[in-house]
Amino acid sequence: MAWPVLVFDIETIPDVAGLRALRGGADDGLTDAEVYARELAERAEGGKSDFMPHYLQRVLVISCVFRNADGLRVHSFVDREPEGISQEGKLIQTFFNSVEKHVPQLVSWNGGGFDLPVLHYRGLRHGVVANKYWDLGEDDREFKWNNYIGRYHMRHLDLMDVLAMYQPRANAPLDAMAKLCGFPGKLGMDGSAVYPAYLQGQVDDIRRYCETDVMNTYLLYCRFQKMRGGFTDAEYEREIEFVKKTLEGITEPHWAEYLQAWK
User: How many domains does the chain have?
Assistant: First the structure.
């Protein structure tokens, strides 16, 4: 398996400020909760899903597992809104700066269907620069045949998409596949609980949830590497034990819970 590898996952909340801007002042005098409730009611009346479109998903957390020859690191970029001012643009720029610096293999679960399109739209809104990420071979000839944007390229590996043979009807949820493979799966909450948790000020709980999700994705990636010959059986077992030892060395309680669930 070639390193470095950067596995990522995002958590988002509805972009209420964006809703206000698109509605042209029609919601003046309403609280954010009231604006969002009105939007949901109107979407229900129109027979639309209550899931906001990609361009109105505000990025709150980007969690990463970074694996290279020096070890494995779990890290999150979090918008903590100092003084009530969203840091979403800075958050997304920092993520793409990591891609620019390390040029890793990106790995996700449904990243092509959700995470990356959201990062594209939100990055465009905030003026984010991501030269290497968008290189299609103009600067680096190798990227013509293997880049981050091509669906069938491996520089970004959307595990769900590949395993489903690019057939949406064959998609599988991360939680189910993690548990079927003997990994802990989701802990603490699911995606539907993120916005209520945010409204309660539980940003760190959301961050911890996102980190366990991205770790599930990394473990499934290791399993995939074993299946495709990137790991021998012995190498796979060593990597799994290395992950466990690394998590044992992190003092935050959600990793102790994760390891306990793994047992």
Answer: 1
